[in-house]
Amino acid sequence: MEKVKLLVPASNISATQMLQHCLLLAEKQGLAIDHVQLGVSPTEYFMVQNGSSAYRYQTDCFVGSAQVVSSDTDWAFEYHSGSISLATTGSLQPNTVKLDVANEEYSLDVWRHPLSGEIRALSSHSNQSQVQFEPQRHFCWLLTLLALDFPIEDSLTLARALTNVSRETWPEDFSLFPIPVIEDPRLGIQVGWKVANKSVSFPTLTKQSLGLYPVVDDVTWIEKLLPLGIKTIQLRIKDTQQADLEQQVVRAIELGRQYKAQVYINDYWQLAIKHGAFGVHLGQEDIEESNLSQLSRANVSLGLSTHGYYELLRIVQIHPSYIALGHIFPTTTKQMPSKPQGLVRLALYQRLIDSIPYDASKGYPTVAIGGIDLTNAEQVWRCGVSSLAVVRAITLAGEPKQVIDSFAQLMTLAKQQGDTCVAG
Hints:
globular; single chain; 9-stranded mixed beta sheet; 13 helices; 2 domains; 29% helix; TIM Barrel
């Protein structure tokens, strides 16, 4: 793993001890910190150096800190923004985060996405925190998480949860986490996930109903696998111009009915509704392009992909049927917008999900996906997920039936022995 330098300005050297504490607590969760080296910044900025890349961060939360100037930094974290008008967020710079903005009984962390330009925000209830909010501690967690390669939205989400608990505690309960704002006209956030001020919702599933979950690119695979006992499968055709696309979708849905299986159609939600599919699976990039109200009215089971804390907490507000977590390991089957999550993060996501209300209980069904095969499946399964999604492990197998049986045996045995995630 490439060395990462986390550098502190000499004028704020007192932050080093707090950063060290953050790193050690992260290590207790299983996150690797050996590659992170604390040091003194040669500039007035806090810095994270990763190979040839150097990222500069500025904040106003330390005594003697200069006023933040976002044009000179990669990210400027402004804690003392006062009671700013939410209507002014339209002029927010792409690399500025306004933190702990008072808003009635809530506080908001507000920023502009550096790529899409959209305003994003996290909402925290005033009664949520078990401890008083400490800007310096929050900022040190932000730096630590950024140095550990969490993306900015996950760093902001997790840092807020970490400052809602005591210094020696890692947050796992849903009640401790901020909620991503998905509708707020004052902020210009309106992603279309609510209809007439009512949240959409989708059919619930039992965790036991998912099992091994092959993802295939041709209906012929569905014809082969359903007779072998597969009860959940996804048709993922990447070529939108494929001549027999609709025919494949129709045939997949028919096979699902024939074998009483849960057949999900990836992406093509309109065809899925048209032909009465059991379910639809959407990636994050596809959610806003779909029509969730139509899917909800059609009573279609909905699975959604997530790649971290922010996306996870965002999509539970629309009550999907299951949550896909990935990609866990490197994969070549799809161009991925994020880096592999790994087993430690998978286990942390799963613990959080287990505390989120779902139907009359807690814990959404979860599907782990990305590079999973018989060599690593047991470790993934022990993280407590409800299902393993596999692609090449099935489609490149000489004897798919033997592979399916091996997965079934592995999953049954691991459950009997208990769910203990092994980072390895």
